[in-house]
Specification:
With about 180 residues, the chain is an all-alpha fold. The chain is built from 6 helices and no strands. Helices cover about 80% and strands about 0% of the residues.
Amino acid sequence: MLIQIATFLLDNLVAFFVILLLARFHFQWLRVGFRNQVGEFILATTNWIVMPARRVIPGLAGLDLATLLAAWLLQALGIWLHATLLASSPGLLAVAAVSLIELLRYSIYILIFAVFVMAILSWVNPYAPVLPVFDALTRPFLRPLRRFLPPVARVDLTPLVLLLALWVVLFLVDGLVRAAAQL
């Protein structure tokens, strides 16, 4: 029972920080401003790991590799600790592969969350101060769909189509996790 509690706490703590690090990476990649409630929270909770990493790892073509590498290493550490608590010894290659695939999964979850929040806020409170943040996160993914799917009776169905596509991708990612775990 104590091992279950420890793995539960470990998995959730690691996931919390990995998701925040990935959100920070995606904010910078998609050029979303940090001068808002969401951005300031992300900066405040991730600066302790990103700022020292940036001294060692430079960016590349506008991508914050220090943040991405920190997320990957933290996820790999979490997977290794989880396996250690369960008394198994995974291979280094398996941990590296699974943690990389988990970053993809968390990135998809971030996008799904952003689409939901953007859609709900656009219906309930289109003038919410955080709506531009979620719009900036989802716009690059919705724009290509909007070229092919026009609004129906002034209702934009592209968020629904994007969500369906993201869930299909998640099914494929689950298959990749199972394949990588067998390494």
